[in-house]
Design brief:
The protein is built from 6 helices and 4 strands, in the order H-E-E-H-H-H-H-E-E-H. The chain is α+β, with helices and mostly antiparallel strands. The protein folds into 2 domains: 85 residues, Herpes Virus-1 (2-Layer Sandwich), CATH 3.30.40; 38 residues.
Length: 153
């Protein structure tokens, strides 16, 4: 007996649709969850939102074109519950596995927002760290590079 996918399951928490291009690119390099094809793989949004509406990047699964939008047995043609049933997929388990693998590669450190004040510049990191105010943009940039590079070691 196959497990029926419920969009009300705990894995499908309603959250603001956030995007992560690096994670989406990583998903597109995975094989299709249905047929195993590695050609034309797309990052398919699943989750509590309706079809053709974006959900969080944490709800992406790899599907080839024909299983995402192209065929009669595609995710968009069947809908999430019927798609999971027809292809015998446990989508919440697939999401959990992908998120545990893919998010390992994510770093909370990057060169973020540049802030300027008359004669001074500083940079912010997504982790909350920010450089001191520097008279030259080059010095502020060097400071955030030291932070990002040091955090990745």
């Amino acid at each position: 007996m196959s497990t029926i996918l419920s969009v009300n399951s705990p894995l499908y928490k309603s959250e603001k649709p956030t995007q992560n291009k690096g994670y989406a690119a990583w998903i597109r390099r995975r094989p299709c969850c249905v047929c195993g094809s590695s050609r034309g793989v797309q990052a398919a949004h699943t989750g509590p939102k309706g079809l053709r509406q974006l959900s969080s990047f944490r709800n992406l699964i790899p599907l080839c074109y024909s299983h995402h939008t192209g065929g009669n047995s595609s995710y968009h043609a069947l809908g999430p519950v019927r798609f999971a049933e027809v292809h015998q997929l446990d989508i919440p388990a697939i999401l959990a596995q992908l998120n545990s693998q893919g998010l390992l590669f994510e770093s909370p450190h990057a060169i973020g927002r540049k802030q300027r004040s008359p004669g001074y510049t500083r940079f912010h990191c997504p982790c909350g760290w920010r450089s001191a105010w520097y008279a030259g943009e080059f010095e502020a940039l060097a400071a955030i590079h030291r932070h990002v590079d040091g955090a990745q070691q």
